[in-house]
Amino acid sequence: MPIGCETDPMLKSVTRPAENRLTADYAQYRSARLARVEYDLDVNLDDGPESFSGVAIIRFDLTGADDSLSIDFTEGTVASLSVNGRELDPDYNHSYITLPAFALRDGPNEVRIVYRHHYSRSGQGLHRFVDSEDSRVYLHTHFEPYDANRLFPCFDQPDLKAFYTLRVTAPASWQVISAASAPRVEEADGQKRWHFPRIGPISTYIFPLHAGEYHVWESDADGIPLRLFARHTLAPYVVPEEWFRLTQQGFRFFQDWFDMPYPYGKYDQLVVPEFNIGGMENVAAVTYSEKFIRRGEYTRENKERMANVLLHEMSHMWFGDLVTPAWWDGLWLKEAFATYMAFLAQAEATEYGDAWHMFYAESKQRAYEADQLVTTHPIEVPVEDTHNAFVNFDRITYQKGASVLTQLSHYLGHDAFRQGVRSYLARHAGGATRLQDLISALETASGRDLAHWVNEWLERAGLNGLEVELNCQDGAIDTLLLRQTAPNDHPTLRTHRLQLGLYRLGENREAFQSAVIPVLARGDVTPVEAARGSFCPDLIYPNHDDWGYLKVHLDKGTREALAQSLPRVPDPLLRSMFLQSFWDMVRDARLSLYEYVDLALALASSEDADRLLLQLTATFDEAMHYLWMWPPDADPERQAAARRIETFVGERIGTCQPDSDRQKLWIDTFLAVAHSPEAIERILAWLRPASSSGDIRLDQDRRWNAVIRLSALGAEDAEELRQRELEADPSDNGRRQSLAAEAARPGEANKRLWLERLRDPEADLSLARRRALMGALFPSGQYAQQAALAGDILDSLPAVGRSHEDAFLLSYGAMIPRLCREDSVARLADAVQRYADINPILLRALRIAHQEDVRCLSMAALSAARH
Asked: What percent of the chain has pLDDT over 90?
């Protein structure tokens, strides 16, 4: 029932909607009334395969007892409720329990709730998984932002940090893992009773409970106990030495950088099945997706990505767990910072010294793309409720936030930035903070007023462009101007601390010359007086070493020089940035895709840096995506360009040492771009016995990728290969991949069958399997099937938004058809207007689909006109 009358004049009552969400207004009201929250939890995990039961005793101090109070508890069953010793009939609407004012009192209160809740199959709440290979059971929790109340009734908001005492009943063969160290364990009648000591203060969304027959490895990091968990059938593929080595390196780095010891007693890491995201920073019991475990040899790229996520989650133990954002508008305070810290730790404490190049080529590009979408938003944005919090778990929050923090570190100086962070953590340890708390600490450490910086970078959206205007006289620079631009929708011109790079080409890389000039760019035009008299450069880049967050538009002279000389630039990061500028021009319809393909193929033929090859192959994949979408009769060069990419990639496979990382990269790229009958035959040969496929040996994960690609291309033997592969790999991953291969097969009837099944809430499919189906249903090249179902998908959006959880909707939104035709653009524009009130996750995806369809048409028109 809604909250009623007004209480204390300082506490204005807030009405809570009877829905499965928590509003910012009510969270603030509840926070003002509550203090000293404590949970005493008793959970029974051996109470049947469908649900678990529990008893929650909640103690808290209350101000304003003349108003009712709600306790969050979504879609459970309340067996009994008592408040301060008084038994009550539960007032429960399946979203929250309302405690009546007459049962409450100012000061200490105690609530006792006996409850039951079903296990999750969506990855949110307490998720239950049964391994199809050995029937072992595995549980893990995932609560961010508002799902702790699916495990136990609670005040599920980040600023109401609490202490927890936990007891768990589970089968005797299970491990049970939570935040606290050294539980006392009793065994009787085939069960174990786990007693975890009191721990806190911890926000509800990072309080963990994981359980099951996990395989466990143990180590330590200078006295910090370490454990690693994975399910038994995956254990042979885990490399615990790699996990522990990175964990030890991370702890040494972070404890020194933060000038603060690790704040919890032990550190567990669990690789869990059907996990929705990459990793989650549960206090002292971090969870990771099984995608980081490969059933074959790990490449350096695999290891580097795993290291980045591992360090990201570890840094959260300080920044996010020990000190926590008070509400979801401060999401960037933890996610952007953890992203920044992960790359910093990789670069300075591990073997991955070029981590900042990875940051530029991947993380920063995701931020740039997101910041140019119609859905961009400020880093610091109001969040009206927990439902909208999920919408903002995006590339602005993570990647742009981290990019801006990187820029801020350069702006303030690294020492001042670090000292500010140290002071912030020391002052607010155990608490919940707002943005101004961090800014105040940085201002004190640096002696700078950051109000203007906050306004420019955190409170306003958009990406600035920067271009150089150069005038030389007698071989020397006469004038050099930096011209800054901003999009019409977000016209802010910002302050940028940059390094301007001037470069002179030589006969080879060894003869390359450079000069670097520090610049503080402001407003629309910044004259660079320090450049006057320097040599007239062949190439200019106004963001040398990637200090700034901006989009560089290459000047005409640099573009023309690079067309023939890009391989002669010696620094891999600089080559990467120049290459990215050309790709940006393609996406902005300022350069023909065919011209880019020529440039990229020429560079790839001689490129020796793995990071550049990863960047190049990613653009080959994306280029093929556009080529397959463009109208087939509009441009005869379209098919020739696609064939050139496929042929080149196929040839590179044979130039590599067998089983090398580089050969695997080209194989993966070939599986993405293959489309011709000859390519189909080549992939088929790889799946035959090793003796018939030369030096190509595919591990199990790549074999499935090959089967899925053959299915998508309609290969004659694809169905037989799928069945044979499933017999060889009946694991859970194999079953998901088999479903993906079935969904990838061409044919409108097949697509419609799987589309109906995956969006049926009652279908016997976990979220992980639904997402596998959605990811494979419309591969590049299946234009006709997607066009035939475009109307069906758009018409389904309102109902799907009402009947599925947010994690499902993120994948469903990615299927909204972008067909690169005038009628498709018009249909999407109409849908944006008609469905303005649908679930915000789907509306966001719909608006992006329309914008990207417009982009695709512009790219196609330019490339056709210039060829």
From this structure: 91
Q: What tens digit of pLDDT does each residue of 176-192 get?
A: 999 999 999 999 888 99
281 touches 313 (CB < 8 A): yes
Q: Which of 503, 521, 553 is the last residue of a domain?
A: 553
Contacts of residue 17, defined as CB under 8 A and 6 or more positions apart, other chains included, come to 2, 23
> Quick one: 814 exposed, middle or buried, by C-beta within 10 A (0-12, 13-18, 19+)?
middle
The angle at the Cα of 722, spanning 719 to 726, to the nearest 5 degrees, equals: 145
Q: What is the pLDDT of residues 288-316, one digit of tens each?
A: 999 999 998 899 999 999 999 999 999 99
Query: Which of these, 121, 155, 152, lies nearest to 139 by C-alpha position?
Result: 121
Residues 480, 341 within the same domain: no
d(CA 549, CA 400): 8
Query: What's the whole-model pTM score?
Result: 0.95
Name the token pair of 68.
Answer: 């009712």
Q: What are phi and psi of 763, to 5 degrees?
A: -65, 145
Q: What is the mean pLDDT of the chain?
A: 95
User: Which of 303, 288, 167, 190 has the alpha carbon at shortest distance from 245?
Assistant: 303
- Show which residues are catalytic: 313
Distance between CA 458 and CA 435 in Å, rounded?
10
Q: What's the whole-number mean pLDDT along residues 765-791?
A: 94
Kindly state whether residues 372 and 438 are assigned to the same domain: yes
SS (H, E, C) 418-460: HHHHHHHHHHHCCCEECHHHHHHHHHHHHCCCCHHHHHHHCCC
Distance CA 776, CA 630 (A): 20
* Domain total of the chain: 4
Q: Exposed (0-12), middle (13-18) or buried (19+): which is 265, by Cβ within 10 Å?
A: middle
Residue range of the domain that includes 488: 466-553
What integer is the mean pLDDT of 17-34? 96
Query: Cα–Cα distances in Å, from 200 out to 6, 60, 204, 283, 445?
Result: 32, 14, 10, 10, 29
The residues, any chain, with a CB within 8 Å of residue 440's CB and separated by 6 or more, are none
Domain finish residue from 213, 235, 264: 213
Residue 120 pairs in a beta bridge with 127
CATH of the domain at 338: 1.10.390.10
Give the integer Cα–Cα distance in Å for 504 and 469: 17
Token pair in block for residue 446: 């640096």
Same domain, 502 and 434: no
User: 137: which 2 tokens?
Assistant: 């059971």
